Amino acid sequence: MTKSYHVAVVGATGAVGTQMIELLEEAATFKIKQVSFLSSARSAGKKITFRGEEVTIQEARPESFEGVDIALFSAGGSVSKALAKEAVKHGAIVIDNTSAYRMDPTVPLVVPEVNEQALFSHKGIIANPNCSTIQMVAALEPIREAYGLNRIIVSTYQAVSGSGVSAIKELQEGSRAVLDNKAFTPEIMPVKGDKKHYPIAFNALPQIDVFTENDYTYEEMKMINETKKIMEDNSIKVSATCVRVPVVSGHSESVYIEIDKEGVSAKDIQNTLKTAPGVVLEDDPANQVYPQAIHAAGKKEVFVGRIRADLDDTKGFHMWIVSDNLLKGAAWNSIQIAESLVKLAII
Fold first, then answer.
1. pLDDT tens digits for 27-55?
2. Do residues 208 and 183 lie in contact, with contact meaning Cβ atoms separated by under 8 Å?
3. Is-above-0.90 flag for pTM?
4. Mean pLDDT over all residues of the chain?
5. pLDDT digits (tens, 9 = 90+) for 139-160
6. Comparing C-alpha atoms, which of 89, 125, 88 is closest to residue 106?
7. What per-residue string of b and e applies to 218-245 under the rule 16 or more CB within 10 Å gives b?
8. CB 107 within 8 A of CB 126
9. Catalytic option among 6, 122, 242, 251
């Protein structure tokens, strides 16, 4: 008899939590016998329709995880730190979409197309990587396997939905204010908790998260450190500049890589990515075909194009990588991890 699972979503009313629930509704690779939607006390009591039935949102507490098999967390790092281990104590496997456990050496950091085998080492908690890291490593891992990889330089163009529903609202209201020639005072961007706020409408902000002591932001350091952990190779040189742009959904990345092998062409890279899992090649410059955030929004795949050889370094290549940050960058990758746990009989 096929096993069925009790799945909990923590942060059920947030941007990512909402996407998780929608994906669970259509999940076909494992059976769901029960769902629990958990949130802060503020949202408790509200109802969400799931597969035709109303489910009441409950306040997330340690006892909420009694009988839960898989707990999907996306309610902020502080909530994960407070409740993830409690969920594990109650028998759940936690898939955490925050930064709380990503760099914990005892917690696997997983993109199923890249390092699914890392799931076997879990001790109750599995970390979902940063959105911008996920799409990049999904595109680069097939290249690394085929040709080696020693350097990555990435500049991101990240959508405001990565900062939550309030950031989307600020973009919309700020855009209307500019077009109507009205004053508007930003309160969210680039970082709600930082000292200064700047408009995102008709702007590009080279700050995502707060700055660290080395003048890189935490977002940039996440990409650097997470890439090395996922690929299990600390020798890869990684540098990142992360920029917020006035796009609602879909992160875009300009990526430069240096591989190990000589004699590799851009066509070779294209052919490698044509069959890469979870990757769609959109690369026909003659006909202006390349990935765009507006087309990637709402899709689960990672889109890659503008692949071209560097003009000075025979081992250098440039490419453009785009994906929906709320789907592959967050909710869909979490669901894929759950599917892998079932497929590999880890749960």
1. 778 999 999 999 999 999 999 999 999 99
2. no
3. yes
4. 97
5. 999 999 999 999 999 999 999 9
6. 125
7. bbbbbbbbbbbbbbeeeebebebbbbbb
8. yes
9. 251
Q: Are the C-beta atoms of 41 and 67 separated by less than 8 Å?
A: no
How many percent of the chain have pLDDT more than 70?
Answer: 100
CB 158 within 8 A of CB 132: yes
Q: Nearest to residue 170, comparing CAs of 182, 188, 191, 158?
A: 188
Tokens of 296: 């990637």
Q: Which residues fall within 8 angstroms of residue 117, CB to CB, at 6 or more apart?
A: none
Tokens of 84: 């993830």
Q: Is 90 among the residues known to form the active site? A: no
131 noted as active-site residue: yes
Phi, psi of 302 (to 5 degrees): -105, 130
Q: What is the DSSP annotation of 126-188?
A: EEPPPHHHHHHHHHHHHHHHHH---EEEEEEEE-GGGG-HHHHHHHHHHHHHHHTT-----SS
Q: What is the DSSP letter of 30?
A: S
Say how far apart CA 193 and CA 39 lie, in whole Å. Answer: 21
Q: Measured between alpha carbons, how far is 132 from 162 in angstroms, rounded to an integer? A: 10
Active-site residue, from 6, 122, 131, 242: 131
Q: Give the tokens for residue 277.
A: 């899992």
Strands 31-39 and 58-59: parallel
> Judging by beta carbons within 10 Å of its beta carbon (0-12, 13-18, 19+), is residue 2 exposed, middle or buried?
exposed
User: For residue 340, what are the CA distances in angstroms to 125, 225, 336, 345?
Assistant: 14, 24, 6, 8
Q: Please tell me the number of Cα atoms within 13 Å of 173 on its side-chain side.
A: 13
Answer whether 319's CB lies under 8 Å from 139's CB. Answer: yes
Q: Provide DSSP, 46-78.
A: -EEEETTEEEE-EE--GGGGTT-SEEEE-S-HH
